[in-house]
Each structure stands twice: as structure tokens, then as C-alpha cells.
Amino acid sequence: MDRLLLLDFLGVAVFAASGALVAARHRRDIVAMIFFAALTGMGGGSVRDVVLDQPVFWLSQPGYPLTAAAIAGLVWFVAGRLDRHERWLLWADAVGLSAYAVLGAAKALSLGTPPLTATVFGVMTATFGGILRDVVAGTPSVLLRREIYITAAFAGSAVYVLAEALGLGFWPAALAGSATALTLRAGALAFGWHLPGHRGTMAPADGERGVPSTIGDDPSDRQK
């Protein structure tokens, strides 16, 4: 299997799981679950391909939507057995981010884009699926959390691009980039790692203090 194709399927699968878990968290039916799985799994790559003026990767490859649908079906049967949907969702999202941060940069580099541009495409690919998921679900975006998120995608993408430039080869560079992104995101989830926020005098945006602590967390479900 082509090296980029392998990463692509991995990214679609784990991001699809995070989208399906959001649907499960909101108690949606199987069709909605498949929709969220496909949107989250393929959204970031679709945006990447449109901006790169390339054929959208899943239009000629039915394996991608089928993978998303299969993951949604799996989540449909196992989600009820998971103690905390949100915890599994966050970790699935972290794994997807680490894979797609490398994949987006690798595809951009393969098309001859400059290293910095390729790094940006890595960040775009890694984050847009989750952004679309949260917007459609009507939940506060993961980007509003204080913990490291975009920074993890940027670091992973940059490490991959740098390693490729140093001639380490695809798989060593990909492993280094993915490990960097996953380590930073895992630290954010486990230990609350975050960068300092702006200390200006502007009032917080509406609802900022009420941003849920997990993706897909419905504030209406909280006990008052």
C-alpha cells in the first residue's frame, strides 16, 4: 500500500471514530452517526485538496467513506460500553491529529510546495475535520480549549518537514512528526499543558467561561 494511502486511511479511521462518538454523545441515530464519522474523517483532507487544487481524495476511492461507515457501525455497538465517551473521543481525536499533521504536509511536499507552506497544510489537514465536527454538532470548538491543540499539529507537521529536508526518509520522518504531535496533545490531555494566554484587558467572549471541558460535552447535560 502506498505510504500516503496508509496514513490517509489511518487518519480517516480515527477521526471518524471521534465524529461517531460525538453523535453517540448526542444520542443520534445510525445515519447521523455515519454522517458525523464521514464529515470528521474526511473533512480536513477535503479542505486540503480543494485548496491545493487537487481532486478530492475520496471521490474516486470508495474505501474512504466505507471506512468511515464501518467505524460508525463499530462505535454504534460499543459506545454504550464506554464509561466516558468524551475521554475516548479526545484520544481518538489526538491520534487522528498526529497522523493527519504528517499526511497533510507530506501531500503538500509531494506537490512541490515550499516547506513552510507544507507545514501549514499539515495543520489544516489535522484540524479542519474536528472544527467541522464541532460546528455541525453545535458544540464549542476544541480550538477554544486552553490545552495545546493547534500547536501540537504545527509541531508535528514542522518536525516531519524538517526531518524530510534532512534526508531521514519518509517513515522515520513520519514517525518523528506523529510522535511529536501525539506527545504534545497527550500531555495536554493528561496534564493540561497549555501556552500562556493573552493577558489583555478585553472582556472574555460571550460564553467563554462556559466552554465545556471536553469535545461534544453538552452544557445542558450538566447538573445545575
SSE blueprint and pairings:
Elements (H helix, E strand, L loop, with lengths): L2 H23 L4 H22 L11 H16 L6 H26 L4 H23 L12 H16 L4 H22 L33
Helix pairs in contact: 1-2, 1-3, 1-4, 1-5, 2-3, 2-5, 4-5, 4-6, 4-7, 5-6, 6-7
Keywords:
224 residues; mainly alpha; 7 helices; globular; disordered C terminus
The gist of it:
This protein has 224 residues and is mostly helical. The protein has one domain.
- Tally of helical runs: 7
Per the principal axes of the C-alpha atoms, what is the gross shape? globular
The percent range for strand residues is under 5%
Question: Based on DSSP secondary structure assignment, what is the total number of beta strands?
Answer: 0
Give the SSE order as H and E letters: HHHHHHH
Give the biggest sheet. none
**Radius of gyration (Å):** 17 Å
How far the N terminus sits from the C terminus, by CA atoms, comes to 52 Å
Into how many domains do the coordinates divide? 1
Look at the helices and sheets and give the structural class: mainly alpha
| Uncertain regions spanning at least 5 consecutive residues | 209-224
Mean pLDDT: 85
Helix content: 55-70%
Multimerization state: single chain
Report on the structure:
With 224 residues, the protein is an all-alpha fold. It has one domain (3-196). The protein has helices at 3-25, 30-51, 63-78, 85-110, 115-137, 150-165, 170-191. α1 (3-25) crosses α2 (30-51), α2 runs antiparallel to α5 (115-137) and α4 (85-110) runs antiparallel to α5. Residues 209-224 have low confidence and may be disordered.
